[in-house]
Amino acid sequence: MAQEDVFKKIVSHCKEYGFVFPSSEIYDGLAAVYDYGQNGVELKNNIKQYWWKSMVLLHDNIVGIDSAIFMHPTIWKASGHVDAFNDPLIDNRDSKKRYRADVLIEDQIAKYDEKIEKEIAKARKRFGESFDEAQFRATNARVIEHQQKRDALHARYTEAMQGPDLAELKQIIIDEEIVDPISGTKNWTDVRQFNLMFSTEMGSVADGSNKVYLRPETAQGIFVNYLNVQKTGRMKIPFGIAQIGKAFRNEIVARQFIFRMREFEQMEMQFFVQPGTELEYFQKWKELRMKWHQALGFGAENYRFHDHEKLAHYANAATDIEFHMPFGFKEVEGIHSRTNFDLSQHEKFSGRSIKYFDPQTKESYTPYVIETSIGVDRMFLSVMCHSYKEEQLENGETRVVLMLPPALAPTKLAVLPLVKKDGLPEKAREIVNNLKFHFNTSYDEKDTIGKRYRRQDAVGTPFCVTVDYDTLQDNTVTLRFRDTMEQERVSIDQLLSIIEDKVSITSLLKKLQ
């Protein structure tokens, strides 16, 4: 099945099973804004809990805060967002649609990658186990041609983005004969810059109002509070501040479901270090963050680092952790060495000293910062994409199952009475009531037991318990395992010890030690 078709099925599955809904759907929706349903919010909360505990529980020098969405407008002047937080936009005169020029070019680069992968896939199928991919890449004429075009375009694009050179970006689009996906024409306008921040007014008209912004990132709330946290928490460098919160960007090209949205959530940690040690900590946090992702068991081959060729104005090192989505390797986390840019700027614009006094060296200095930043929604999407499976069973049926990491699953255990009579529902309810204090447990009595198993598979529930007539006699139940569909008879008294450790966030955190 084509990866594009797989992605469409995942999007459909998210809506059908209560994970993600289009926002304001009864009013025909609002573009690139989504709501999380009853299962989606549980999965999302579990992802956030895994991240939060991995930061503040496992590191005695990292604490958390929750800063306001509205902030003093000068903060965004100091950070550079007012003047430099722009995207290069281009319009098609025929369709009247607006696009990000850089995204159009990146999609063109991806098309060359897809052509190469198709050639490799055909060769792998033809040669089987004897296939040598490295040799094929180096010798196949079509692959070499596609790779050369791809590399030349990538180099040209990277150089154009340094400025950015808006005229060159348009020329690349023309030279590559990139067409508007709607009109099919190449009738493009010039490329121009567009600021991504949402603005609004604070205060009444009578008293005069101030222009404020919805924050485009959560990091600045950490920077302006870093000295408050350091002093009240008596923190010594190196130390970190973690935060989870909403951010807002007026994305013109919001696409690929929840991958790029206008309202999204970030998990960010800013780690403050002594100047001169930042690259050492940058490398350390690269390793720690990759370990965090791989602890989910999705396979090391599905992750890669992508070092930035064009560094942001505040950085001296930057890399992305990319995950293999159905639409290619895409960024889920950024790790940046931000130098002392942000703190220095806030000191300059506020007129207040926010230097750190080092009790060991007896000197004051502006700390350097290592940032780790994850989009919660992108992380959610990567989990869904990897977990979605369609399995062909021996009886010819197809099973749709979400093989979610048990610790992230919305519901850990479903308790199912075999029939809705003879005391079985009451016994099942008793099991639910005993276990719901330990992990998320649900009760389901509608439809046949087979249909209920399938329903729980589809929402990723790792364990199901069936209560039958024997249960009333010997206090045992049938425990079913989602991934293997294997079943075993166990005592009700054993359920907590069998399930709890496997479904707790602690089971993931232990892998990080």
TrEMBL record:
CDD domains, A to Z: GlyRS-like_core, GlyRS_anticodon
Chief location of this protein within or outside the cell: cytoplasm
Domain annotation Aminoacyl-transfer RNA synthetases class-II family profile: ranges: 150-405
Catalytic activity: tRNA(Gly) + glycine + ATP = glycyl-tRNA(Gly) + AMP + diphosphate
Entry GO terms, CC: cytoplasm; extracellular exosome; microvesicle
Record's keyword terms, sorted: Aminoacyl-tRNA synthetase, ATP-binding, Cytoplasm, Ligase, Nucleotide-binding, Protein biosynthesis
Binding-site residues for substrate, renumbered to this chain: 100, 217, 264-268, 371-375
One Pfam short name: HGTP_anticodon
InterPro entries: aa-tRNA-synt_IIb (IPR002314), aa-tRNA-synth_II (IPR006195), aa-tRNA-synth_II/BPL/LPL (IPR045864), Anticodon-bd (IPR004154), Anticodon-bd_dom_sf (IPR036621), Gly-tRNA_synthase/POLG2 (IPR027031), Gly_tRNA_ligase_bac (IPR022961), GlyRS-like_core (IPR033731)
UniProt binding sites for ATP: 249-251, 259-264, 331-332, 375-378
Signal peptide (residue range): none
Keyword ATP-binding carried by entry: yes
Family matches, as Gene3D superfamilies: 3.30.40.230, Anticodon-binding domain, Bira Bifunctional Protein, Domain 2
GO terms classed as biological process: diadenosine tetraphosphate biosynthetic process; glycyl-tRNA aminoacylation
Enzyme Commission number, as recorded: 6.1.1.14
Keyword set includes Translocase: no
Subcellular location as annotated: Cytoplasm
Any one GO MF annotation of this record: bis(5'-nucleosyl)-tetraphosphatase (asymmetrical) activity
Function noted in UniProt: Catalyzes the attachment of glycine to tRNA(Gly).
The family this protein is said to belong to: Belongs to the class-II aminoacyl-tRNA synthetase family.
Quaternary context: Homodimer.
PANTHER family reported for this sequence: DNA POLYMERASE SUBUNIT GAMMA-2, MITOCHONDRIAL, GLYCYL-TRNA SYNTHETASE/DNA POLYMERASE SUBUNIT GAMMA-2
Name assigned to this protein: Glycine--tRNA ligase
